[in-house]
Amino acid sequence: MSSDQPEQRHRGRMQRKKAAVDAAITRADRDQGLLLVLTGNGKGKSSSAFGMLARALGHGMKVGVAQFIKGRSDTGEEAFFQRQPGVVWHLLGEGFTWETQNLTRDIKTAQRGWAVVREMLRDPSLGLIVLDELTYPLKYGWLEIDTVLADLKARPPMQHVVITGRGAPQALCDAADTVTELRDIKHAFRAGVRAQKGIDL
Amino acid sequence: MSSDQPEQRHRGRMQRKKAAVDAAITRADRDQGLLLVLTGNGKGKSSSAFGMLARALGHGMKVGVAQFIKGRSDTGEEAFFQRQPGVVWHLLGEGFTWETQNLTRDIKTAQRGWAVVREMLRDPSLGLIVLDELTYPLKYGWLEIDTVLADLKARPPMQHVVITGRGAPQALCDAADTVTELRDIKHAFRAGVRAQKGIDL
């Protein structure tokens, strides 16, 4: 038994793995503007969208962001991205609906917000658009899912859109190219740690 | 039946919801450096870590990144964050193990990488550290989990660490404050779309 047998066995296994990975990469050969949905109760949905925003900026793309629920304008993400060139940023929310406690106003705010988004979805110079926490106005019925899906479908063919929020409607997931569900396995908040700068806001 | 009854009912429901949310926020009153794990097969783990990086930079924090597997240096995230002030960025990988096909070299690369990380974990000026795809060297046994956990535990008390990658070991999840599992519900790659700039790289 030669002493380099584990090394050889590893090499053989990895050669077969590489062949399988390479074949999958060869099969995927199309370019396309993607619709991504990040949903579920776990921490990291908006963060993930903002990470893609950073990636897109790294490739010199112009990007747009619409934040639907967050009313506060002191978040780290906003402070950071607002000072980057090539970023259009819209704060469209007034806080969670249990903060406003006014249904009529929530509906008006959401619909005014969607009009702003529609303009971005018609602008082919925007390579990536983040619709942060869009699922809530959909879930509460402040926006019509059919209107939203139609506007998404009519967007420029190479424009990527990332939608975040809990409880994404099934029709939105059906229309999406990539859907990730973030499951909350454990959260520091439940252990008594409040929202931390740089992590949660 | 008064015409503003739905509005009143909504207000009542939202007042109760607000009370519950506020009570939970009051209970969570500690500040602490968090250890976060983003695992699972779904798309968005590294993106999520990079989003938190952007948040931290927005609050004026200094941050560090170590990428364990990715050997390529042409990703959007690297191009973007490397040009930001306050970012320390280390590429510690040579690609996936099925690319190198050399076990001894993979082990040496990972261990040299961890020595770099250990220095970052001893630097209290770094408010957030991303250990991107650290789970792979742990899973393949190139790094000892006990060494990694001991170094993480010894870090400055207010330093946040975010670890990404599939198949996070149970001992790592046990040590973490927040764990999110990203489930792959649907992925454009399987429909024949290749990795897209700004989304996947």
UniProtKB/TrEMBL annotation, chains A, B:
- The main location is cytoplasm
Q: What is the stated purpose of this protein?
A: Required for both de novo synthesis of the corrin ring for the assimilation of exogenous corrinoids. Participates in the adenosylation of a variety of incomplete and complete corrinoids.
InterPro entries the UniProt entry points to: CblAdoTrfase_CobA (IPR003724), Co_AT_N_dom (IPR025826), P-loop_NTPase (IPR027417)
Compartment(s) where it occurs, according to its Swiss-Prot or TrEMBL record: Cytoplasm
Entry EC no(s): 2.5.1.17
Q: Which SUPFAM superfamilies match?
A: P-loop containing nucleoside triphosphate hydrolases
For molecular function, the Gene Ontology terms on record are: ATP binding; corrinoid adenosyltransferase activity
Please give the residue ranges the record annotates as the region Disordered: 1-23
- Cob(I)alamin adenosyltransferase N-terminal domain residues are 1-25
Its GO CC terms are: cytoplasm
Q: Which GO terms describe its biological process?
A: cobalamin biosynthetic process; porphyrin-containing compound biosynthetic process
> Domain of life, per the record?
Bacteria
- What keyword terms does UniProt attach to this protein? ATP-binding, Cobalamin biosynthesis, Cytoplasm, Nucleotide-binding, Porphyrin biosynthesis, Transferase
The entry's protein name is: Corrinoid adenosyltransferase
The pathway where this protein functions is: Cofactor biosynthesis; adenosylcobalamin biosynthesis; adenosylcobalamin from cob(II)yrinate a,c-diamide: step 2/7
Checking CDD domains in the record gives: CobA_ACA
Q: What class of enzyme is it?
A: transferase
Catalysed reactions, semicolon-separated: 2 cob(II)alamin + reduced [electron-transfer flavoprotein] + 2 ATP = 2 adenosylcob(III)alamin + 2 triphosphate + oxidized [electron-transfer flavoprotein] + 3 H(+); 2 cob(II)yrinate a,c diamide + reduced [electron-transfer flavoprotein] + 2 ATP = 2 adenosylcob(III)yrinate a,c-diamide + 2 triphosphate + oxidized [electron-transfer flavoprotein] + 3 H(+)
Q: Which family does it belong to?
A: Belongs to the Cob(I)alamin adenosyltransferase family.
